[in-house]
Amino acid sequence: MEILAFGVQADEKPLLEKAFAGHHDIRCLDVFLNEDTAPIAVGHDIVCTSVNCALGHRVLQTLAVGGTQMIAQRSTGFNNIDLQVAERLGMTVARVSYYSPYSVAEFAWTLGMAVNRRVVRASNRTRDFDFRLDGLMGRDMHGRTAGVLGTGKIGEAFTRIAHGFGMNLLGWDVVENPACAALGMKYVSKEALLAESDLVSLHVPLMPETTHLIDAAALRAMKDDAILVNSSRGGLIDTKALVAELRAGRFTGVGLDVYEAEAGLFFLDKSLEPVEDDTLARLVTFPNVLVTSHQAYYTEDAVTQIIDATVHNVLDYRAGRRSENVLVPTAAG
């Protein structure tokens, strides 16, 4: 049986092929699954997808008609899949419920420190042999306050790094994490966290209730010189509202590894095409903003764990077993 994998990065392909060797053949495509590419999957019982694939009603219907019975998502997030439609069509959907939290937490701090210490600006200058320090002044993190919105596994890893910096710790979550509390984290309301934090980092999943968690009101509640980091999901921030605040000269820095309209942009080379997204185009012009292309998870350790979990999801499906990774079970899976 051949599995069809969409949205496979060049570094990811040999790892996928090696992991599935001896189990199933796998055909790796660099294109993402959407309405245009869904017909390619005809005849494939199992389709493997990434977070930037779009599995709405029409795509799932096309897959079902073509014989696909299982979606194996290579990510923790699954907001790109219409689970109700998948269930109605009798398709099994599985995701990766866990991989290295350190990959994302460490990258979130990379973004935070890069904007704090003006690393991109400094690098651009030194390439032109401009070694002035004007405009490069940052701040010590020691003794300042880190606000962590979402204190699950990734939020906890982020908090441990903040604790290592010697920061005061504020947390917000529906359930308190005892490990974070043991580090000295004080759980407060979202409003209090935003008002008191020098650096705010987002580590919550994207759901209807968290969409635009950081909206215009939340942004206005933050300190004028705060740092905002998002390495979770783009939809957590109202980007247009963020641009408006940046235009007003607010925030020491903003580090974004995700963007709410990233589908169709991130993971692709758009350098030779006209820029159609006015909001993103304006966002990247601010000197205190750093945008990366959803790469926080992209370490050898994390990707290997994601692929290993995906292989096990497929093997479990074929054997009729279920695990915590299954989002939509069927009689076959």
Structure description:
The structure is a single chain. With 333 residues, this protein is α/β, with parallel strands linked by helices. The protein has 2 domains: 2-99 and 300-328, Rossmann fold, CATH 3.40.50; 101-291, NAD(P)-binding Rossmann-like Domain (Rossmann fold, 3-Layer(aba) Sandwich). Helices cover 34% and strands 15% of the residues. It has 12 helices and 13 strands. The strands form 2 sheets. It has a 7-stranded parallel beta sheet with strand order 8-7-6-9-10-11-12, with helices on both faces. Strands 2-1-3-4-5-13 form a 6-stranded mixed beta sheet. Strand 6 (145-149), helix 6 and strand 7 (168-172) form a beta-alpha-beta unit. Helix 4 (101-116) crosses helix 6 (153-165). It is globular, with a radius of gyration of 21 Å. 42% of the residues are buried. The model has no long low-confidence stretch (mean pLDDT 95). This is 2-hydroxyacid dehydrogenase. Residues 6-327 form the D-isomer specific 2-hydroxyacid dehydrogenase catalytic domain. Residues 112-296 form the D-isomer specific 2-hydroxyacid dehydrogenase NAD-binding domain. Belongs to the D-isomer specific 2-hydroxyacid dehydrogenase family. Its EC number is 1.1.1.28.
- Residue ranges: pLDDT <50 for 5 or more in a row? none
Share of residues in strands? 5-15%
Order of adjacent strands in the largest pleated sheet: 8-7-6-9-10-11-12
CATH class of the largest domain: Alpha Beta
User: How many strand elements?
Assistant: 13
The run of helices and strands is EHEEHEHEHHEHEHEHEHEHEHEHE
- Rg, Å, rounded: 21 Å
Shape: globular
Distance between the termini: 17 Å
Averaged pLDDT: 95
Total separate domains: 2
The total of helices stands at 12
The largest sheet, given as strand count, sense and whether it forms a barrel, is: 7 strands, parallel
